[in-house]
Specification:
Layout lengths: L3 H14 L9 H12 L7 H32 L5 H16 L4 H11 L3 H10 L6 H23 L12 H4 L16 H11 L30 H12 L8 H13 L9 H27 L7 H11 L4 H10 L4 H11 L6 H9 L5
Helix pairs in contact: 1-3, 1-4, 3-5, 4-5, 4-6, 5-6, 5-7, 6-7, 7-10, 9-12, 10-11, 12-14, 13-14, 13-15, 15-16
């Protein structure tokens, strides 16, 4: 059975021996490399041979060191790493990231190491543009988890004296007992006032909210090459301001500072304005989603005002997907079909919105 000391020595020795990462790898080279592994004496240009030998050595060292990070994590969880060993392991993990050597395992260890030592290293990594962007995205996800309790504690603090950024009627939406977000109500009068208060004065310059993000592969594996920054901003925002009553100027300043710590680009002058626009659209989307269920059960209570508001939201590119969802749920109602028909024929709308409206009509 190995010791913590021997585990740390294995990682240090591997880092000292690992060749530099080769760049310029192509699919064709990968096929040739696999043939090289089968036929070591294969005739190759010297440049290719050096690259392939270096890559083979990196793979060998990775295979022999991979489980050491797992062993160190288990020791850490069992309380078997002292403070000096934790600091040394954190330093080795940071060096692994810069060497592009088992960097995801190193970042995972730093998350397990937690606060303060692991968090400090992760904060350095996410703000360093020389670190691989996919590794930074993974490190940022772990940091959000590490800092979540503090951000959620802030959300439970009173907002008295802070400057609200959403209309009063919207701030009156019930608070959920689970997480402090919105508890959607069947009070159609309140839902109508909320949607009227949130309706943009004109068409948005960009559709809001962004479509739900899913990895292109459609499986449980997250491709950090695809993960958009707005997703992490939204997650942090939800931790700090889960309810409309907490969307204040002061907390927007805190959101911006937190996102800067996480290495996210929040430098735009209109950052706060854009975030508030997005939050307004997300709340409206939630209201339309709830109205879909409510309208299906009690259509007389939401006709025609909910359909009219849905049309206006779609025309202004705000909460358009959920507004169409509500209209689709209520397609059996003649007025809902009338609104969908108008939207499907409106050439000023984005093509995908017109197509969606058309697809919701009977017989489409």
């Amino acid at each position: 059975m190995t010791s913590a000391r021997s585990d740390l020595d294995v990682v240090a020795a591997a880092l000292a021996a690992v060749p530099p990462l080769g760049y310029g790898w192509t699919d064709g080279m990968q096929d040739l490399y696999e043939r090289f592994l089968r036929e070591p004496d294969l005739a190759l240009p010297q440049e290719y041979r050096r690259k392939f030998e270096s890559h083979r050595e990196r793979e060998r060292l990775s295979a022999s060191t991979y489980e050491v990070w797992w062993s160190l994590e288990k020791r850490l969880e069992a309380g078997g790493l002292g403070s000096a060993e934790q600091a040394e392991a954190a330093e080795l993990a940071e060096r692994c990231v810069y060497a592009r050597f088992l960097e995801y395992e190193a970042v995972g260890f730093l998350h397990t190491l937690g606060r303060p030592v692991g968090e400090e290293v992760l904060l350095r990594l996410v703000r360093d543009p020389s670190v691989d962007e996919y590794v930074r995205a993974r490190a940022r996800e772990w940091l959000i988890w590490l800092r979540r309790d503090d951000n959620r504690a802030r959300s439970r603090e009173a907002v008295e004296g802070e400057e609200p950024l959403l209309p009063a009627g919207v701030r009156e939406l019930p608070v959920s007992a689970h997480g402090g977000g919105i508890e959607w109500t069947d009070d159609t009068g309140l839902l109508r006032r909320v949607l009227e208060a949130l309706l943009p004065a004109e068409r948005l310059a960009w559709p809001e909210p962004p479509a739900e993000w899913h990895s292109k592969d459609g499986d449980d594996e997250v491709d950090y090459a695809e993960r958009p920054e707005w997703l992490d901003i939204r997650i942090v925002e939800g931790d700090l301001m889960p309810h409309p009553s907490q969307v204040t100027q002061e907390r927007m300043v805190e959101l911006r500072g937190e996102c800067e710590l996480l290495g996210l680009d929040v430098s735009a002058d209109d950052f706060v304005e854009r975030q508030v626009t997005r939050i307004r659209a997300e709340i409206a989307a939630g209201a339309f989603h709830h109205l879909g269920s409510l309208g299906y059960r009690r259509p007389d209570e939401v006709t025609p005002w909910a359909m009219d508001l849905a049309q206006r939201y779609v025309e202004r590119d705000a909460a358009a997907e959920k507004a169409l969802y509500m209209l689709g749920v209520m397609y059996e109602h003649p007025y809902s079909r009338e609104v969908l028909t108008r939207l499907a024929a409106d050439t000023s709308l984005r093509p995908e919105i017109r197509e969606k409206a058309e697809s919701l009509l009977p017989g489409a």
